[in-house]
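Renewal narrative, Specific Aim 1. Our central claim is that a sequence can be written position by position from structural information alone. The example that follows is taken directly from our test logs and has not been curated for this report. It begins with the structure tokens describing the chain, in the order in which they were read.
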């Protein structure tokens, strides 16, 4: 399972927008992604939002507290993740060839 991208809206410390983790030549999900930027640019919060969104779908344990991720006065927040599964993972989950 590889992350193809994330859409973040209303996440504290993260600019609203789409974050793609794709190879520009093939359009496939990257094997490795390096998140860089200056101090306070939202790197850690972006990774937190991705991890917490994944946990909301398929938790490993107690559901995490997500309240600290919501931008003040935004009324709510949203993270949409796009995943790419290999053949074995698609077969196990009963999925077709499209990204999820």
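The sequence written for that structure reads:
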């Amino acid at each position: 399972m590889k992350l193809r991208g994330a859409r973040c809206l209303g996440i504290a410390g993260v600019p609203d927008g789409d974050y793609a983790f794709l190879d520009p030549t093939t359009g496939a999900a990257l094997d490795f992604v390096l998140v860089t930027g200056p101090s306070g640019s939202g790197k850690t919060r972006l990774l937190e939002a991705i991890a917490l969104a994944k946990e909301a779908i398929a938790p490993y344990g107690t559901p995490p507290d997500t309240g600290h991720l919501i931008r003040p006065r935004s009324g709510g927040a949203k993270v949409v993740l796009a995943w790419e599964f290999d053949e074995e993972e698609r077969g196990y989950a009963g999925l077709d060839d499209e990204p999820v």
